[in-house]
Amino acid sequence: MIWRCRDRVFDLSTRTLVMGVVNVTPDSFSDGGRFFAPGAAIAHARQLLAEGADLLDLGAESTRPGAAPVTTAEQIRRLAPVIEALAADPRACLAVDTASAEVADRALELGARVVNDVTALADPGMATVVVRRGAGLVLMHMAGTPATMQRDPHYDDVAREVRGHLATRLEAARAAGVPAGCVVLDPGIGFGKTVQHNFELLARIEEFRSLGRPLLIGVSRKSFLGKTLDLLVNQRLEGGLAAGAVAVFLGARIVRTHDVAATVRAVRIAEALREARRP
């Protein structure tokens, strides 16, 4: 349960981390580009740190269903001023949400410590960048691409198949030289899954324990909550807190969220309950 991210080492054996989301994009599903301007993104990031975020996940390319790709040059242009402003803050451990090795390398050069790769090393140069920089790495499961992932996703056994995919990508990372202690795994809630697939994955989180690496869960404001509760994006807080808390109780060690203050409170209670049931 140790996660190494360059000069930061997190012990996740008892404490769950909260990762705050900062979308430096004009087309995010969750905030509609409110933090696209560097100044707005920086101010928002500092607010999330004040609310208790352990990490900040900075993304310059939307991964919502149907999202169009963004060039590496444009991603770097959006990210650079934000990372430069935040990297020196001792409270900040910055993750860059990108599938591009070039973007990841530049972000790490500027001071980021983690690469959050929703494609799990589809870019053949990504592992090399992670190893050379000593970065933390999040490997996520996604069926297809953001443009195609919600076109009738199908699994015979979603938890077994997602777990198998993550095991394969973890082994690929290790074979490329990434230390296992640098890797966290993410089943990709909402990425190529139906509402029922998402609930089944969350209910069966304990089955991922055998992979031997901490699990990150991102449920904040996602559409499966809205479809279940018939609520708009800005009305899904309570649903996300419930799903995240159950995930932590069942073993998740990092929760990715847009709503840091409320999530920190929910996570602290969920992890206390998780620890209380230890034999």
Provide structural commentary.
The chain is built from nine helices and ten strands. With 279 residues, the chain is of the alpha/beta class. The chain has a single domain, classed as TIM Barrel (Alpha-Beta Barrel), CATH 3.20.20.20. An eight-stranded parallel beta sheet has the order 8-7-6-5-4-3-10-9. A two-stranded antiparallel ribbon has the order 1-2. A hairpin with a 2-residue loop joins β1 and β2. It starts with a strand and ends with a helix.
Task: Summarize this entry quickly.
The protein has 279 residues and is an alpha/beta fold. Helix content is 40%, strand content 16%.
Topology:
Layout: E1 2-5, E2 8-11, E3 17-23, H1 38-50, E4 55-59, H2 72-86, E5 94-97, H3 101-110, E6 114-117, H4 126-133, E7 136-140, H5 158-175, E8 183-186, H6 195-203, E9 216-218, H7 223-229, H8 237-250, E10 254-257, H9 260-276
Parallel strand pairs: 3-4, 3-10, 4-5, 5-6, 6-7, 7-8, 9-10
Antiparallel strand pairs: 1-2
